[in-house]
Amino acid sequence: MKDSLYVFDQLRPRLQKMAYRMLGSVAEAEDIVQEVWLRWHAAAHDTIDNAEAWLVAVTTRMSIDRLRAAKIQREQYAGIWLPEPLLTESPATPEEVKERADDVSVAFLLLLERLTPEARAAFLLREVLDVDYDEVAEVLGKTEAACRQLVSRAKTQLRDGRPRYEVSRETHRRLLQSFTVAVERGDFAGIHALLAEEAMLYGDGGGKVPSFPEPMLGAKRIAQLFYASALRYGSDVRFRLVELGGQWALLRYLDGQLESAMSIETDGNQIVRLLVQRNPNKLTFIAKAHGMPPDRFASSQD
Predict the structure, then answer these.
(1) 113-134: per-residue pLDDT in tens?
(2) Domain range holding 136?
(3) What total number of domains does the chain contain?
């Protein structure tokens, strides 16, 4: 039993990685991994030739089933659905920077929603976990040729939706810092100047806090939103620069309470898209990590 526990603990980060990228939810990923542990605990280990392959396969199949059910539920979701942000630590190497920016950012997880559950699984197994095609085929119960086609089509779909710009982490950080300063000062012109003319804002309130049912389009409208918030809350508004999904992002606090987590996309000069997570259920893990009570969130109208 000790050996099986050690094997599972060694592979847990890999299983968590797969489940989170499949579901876009920290809580659901943890549920999946816990269920996989229970199945591993009950399995006849002497009949399993490759523990890692077995655990990855079970995690993937369970995630596919969970994602199918989630897609049906999301048809009834209140307003815009965005993935749950993952709080990450600063990567130690340039390779880790690229890996995280490529496969755990909120924008990329949202892009993965374009894929069917099986295509998403095939793509992640091959391109993120670096699983060979023969193993991908075994996990999905398809031929290698079919899996290669799934991955190829997924790449095409994702390529069409990826940002056209390559922006350094430092540039990304500086832009967020400038945006923070402009908002906290209530500088409408400064906020407006940092937004591309066709900028878009997506907000997820999950029906639990007010948010927008459709994306907000245009630099002026978005700038007015943040300017109005600055006028209304003044010094009660505070931002914290953190890493979410391997990219610099902002946490916004109202009167000391976590209100939202905001990720951005930029062309290097201006912000082109803002993804604002306000659903309290999707902020719980971030709030806990920063010592905030998980059941106390601000509920502003913007």
Answers:
(1) 999 999 999 999 999 999 999 9
(2) 114-162
(3) 3
Residue 296 pLDDT: 46
Beta bridge partners of 202: 275
Query: Could you tell me whether strands 237-244 and 247-254 are parallel, antiparallel, or unpaired per DSSP bridges?
Result: antiparallel
Domain membership flag for residue 25: yes
Q: Given this model, what pLDDT does residue 294 score? A: 46
pTM summary value: 0.87
- The tens digit of pLDDT for each residue in 149-161 reads 999 999 999 887 7
Same-domain status, 144 and 223: no
Enumerate the β-bridge partners of residue 260. 252
